[in-house]
């Protein structure tokens, strides 16, 4: 996992083909269900543009009601909590959340926050996620 987080910290334009291949391999074997079924072309595109987001403190609010979502993420380390009305959902390592691969604005209904220190997320911007899923059609 450390190797992947190190790669995700490299500026996108400076990643080597080896770096991209390592992230593609990671996406192919990671337990995030959505990743296992992504076409290889989408995994490669995502691997080129994914970045690491680190939230150093527990209880950090990542999104509040009506915030516009701008990324799709995989929890690499840590736990997050999503609360809406009387419901609570915990995101653990390997879980995914965020935007769908479309360009229309999407908003969160509840609150999303970290449950522990040093939560690490692999994040893909909405425009890049859209491009990854539509690359074959372009």
UniProtKB/TrEMBL annotation:
Domain of life: Eukaryota
Protein name: Cyclic nucleotide-binding domain-containing protein
Species the sequence originates in: Clavelina lepadiformis
